[in-house]
Design brief:
Elements: H1 10-14, H2 19-42, H3 55-83, H4 98-102, H5 107-125, H6 132-158, H7 160-167, H8 172-196
Helix pairs in contact: 2-3, 3-5, 3-8, 5-6, 6-7, 6-8
Length: 197
């Protein structure tokens, strides 16, 4: 259970004292989140069997840091930017842009981002961002949502066997790495805020 003396998310802690600062801070959080999601989609870390982006990690950290409302709004703003034709997604503009790209093979993962950001925010508001074990569990749950949505979408396009082969198997190891990174990072950020509060 979260300590009743503390706000539920990092955003609440950062802008709990001033309504003006909070309004500007919330807008800055959305813009920063969209920029971070775009950057995380474009940067690839060499890994086996496929290069690793940090996008799913960023999605979940946004949800956990911002809560269900602001986290979901941030990911929705990112998706709207992509739907409008801005090259914010991985492989854009080379593989297409806008709604045509979103309806392609990665569409399920993009939908999963929105659901997972909301769920990570709900869990953070219930205190899951305050410890390593709970943060690890939140990261695992969030990644399961994203991968499940991606595999379901792909399976509708190419069949279940290929959907699993293309949308799940190549990402298992990278998902474990990102779960570990998120589980360590969120409690450390909380401690930094606690020291400065």
């Amino acid at each position: 259970m979260l300590d009743a003396r503390l706000p539920g998310t990092l955003i609440d802690t950062a802008w709990s004292n001033s309504s003006t600062a909070r309004r500007f801070g919330l807008l800055a959080a959305v813009v920063s989140g969209v920029c971070l999601l775009t950057l995380s989609a474009k940067l690839q870390v060499p890994f086996y069997p496929v290069p690793m982006t940090m996008q799913t990690l960023v999605v979940l950290m946004i949800g956990m840091a911002c809560g269900r409302v602001l986290g979901t709004a941030t990911v929705a703003a990112y998706l709207l930017a992509g739907a409008a034709g801005l090259p914010v997604f991985a492989g854009t503009p080379e593989r297409g842009i806008g709604l045509a790209y979103m309806m392609g093979p990665t569409g399920g993962f993009l939908l999963g981002f929105l659901i997972a950001a909301w769920l990570a925010g709900v869990l953070a508001e219930r205190g899951w961002s305050s410890s390593f074990l709970l943060s690890a569990a939140a990261m695992v749950v969030g990644h399961v949502v994203i991968l499940s949505a991606g595999v379901a979408w792909l399976s509708a396009l190419v069949g279940l066997e290929k959907g699993i082969a293309l949308g799940l198997m190549p990402f298992l190891v990278t998902t474990l790495v990102k779960c570990a990174l998120g589980a360590v990072s969120i409690p450390l950020i909380w401690r930094a805020f606690g020291r400065n509060a």
